[in-house]
Structures are given as structure tokens and as C-alpha cells.
Design goal:
- There is one protein chain.
- Helix 1 crosses helix 3.
- Helices cover 40% and strands 22% of the residues.
- It starts with a helix and ends with a helix.
- The protein contains six helices and eleven strands.
- It has 174 residues and is an alpha+beta fold.
């Protein structure tokens, strides 16, 4: 994933004019209207080097980084940090978001309050081999997205069909 991210950002940097790039993963649902509000907020920070998203902390290693569910990079952030220094990183780690965060130690914009991990593995009923996620839970989820201006949501579970169904429900709700 790390090499795909770096190669993709190299391509974008060389071939496109842009302000921000959003790098997500497969289990991320993006609410576009709320995401546009996030971009407006980032524009007010008066910083050319934006590295933003849900903050993660590895307490053991005392390392902060942005979750791979939603890494937002500005053009200058990619040019001046990532593309100039990626060769200092371990390009084969399991946790690419952890490794990429090493380039931005003091330049993190925490957007955790606009993020929600939708369905946790603890919601899984192993006896029934299914998730305990009712229609009311789905309605409450949509309500939370609207009321809290959440821009990304993650649903990553053992049952990928559950994720697909939930993503479809969210897409149809908006």
C-alpha cells in the first residue's frame, strides 16, 4: 500500500493541478458535502503544508500519525515532505499510515472529531455469525453523520458483505 500511495502521489504531483489530495482505504465512506466543509476549514489555517485526518497515537513508540482511512495532503505537503523524504521510510511496513506519519511529526491537523468508525468488531455475534446492527442503528448512524458533520466513516469487519450492504445503505441515504 505504501508504494501505491507514493507512486500515486508522484503521478498526481506531476500531472495535475490541485490543492488537496484525499487518500482513503477500501473501508472508508466519504460524505462529500461534509468533506467540502473540511476543505474550507483547512483553507483557513494559513498553512501551505497540510497533513490532516483522524489522529492516531502509538503510545508505546510515542508516535502520532494520521489514520489511513483519511489522509489529506496539500500540494506543498506532498512536494516538500513526502516526495523529498519518502526514501527515508521503511517502504514495506504493515502500517503505511504509521510510517508516513514520520515525515510530519509537528505538522498534523487533527480532524478526529469529524470521523467515526462505524461498526466495531465487538458488534460481531460469533454464535450467529453476524453483526448486531439493526435498522435503528443504521438510522442513528445517518443522524450522527448529519448532526456531527462527519466527513468519513469506516466499516471494516470480518464480513465484507456486511460492509458492502452498510455502504450501500449510506449511499442511498445521502
Amino acid at each position: 500500500i505504501m508504494l501505491k500511495t507514493i507512486e500515486g502521489l508522484k503521478y498526481i504531483q506531476s500531472n495535475h493541478d490541485y490543492d488537496y489530495v484525499l487518500r482513503t482505504n477500501l473501508s472508508t465512506f466519504l460524505h462529500i458535502d461534509n468533506f467540502l466543509k473540511i476543505l474550507e476549514y483547512l483553507d483557513t489555517l494559513n498553512s501551505n503544508e497540510i497533513y490532516a485526518g483522524p489522529l492516531m497515537i502509538n503510545h508505546e513508540m510515542k508516535h502520532k500519525f494520521i489514520s489511513g482511512t483519511s489522509m489529506i495532503y496539500s500540494r506543498d505537503s506532498i512536494k516538500n515532505n513526502l516526495l523529498e523524504n519518502y526514501n527515508t521510510l521503511d517502504l514495506t511496513p504493515y502500517s503505511d499510515d504509521f510510517e508516513l506519519g514520520k515525515l510530519y511529526k509537528k505538522k498534523i491537523t487533527d480532524l478526529t472529531k469529524y470521523y467515526d468508525k462505524l461498526v466495531y468488531l465487538s458488534d460481531y455475534d460469533y454464535d450467529k455469525n453476524e453483526y448486531n446492527f439493526s435498522d435503528d442503528d443504521k438510522k442513528n448512524l445517518v443522524k450522527n453523520i448529519i448532526e456531527k458533520d462527519l466527513y468519513i466513516f469506516r466499516s471494516k469487519n470480518y464480513d465484507r458483505q456486511f460492509d458492502v450492504n452498510l455502504m450501500e445503505y449510506l449511499t442511498n441515504s445521502f
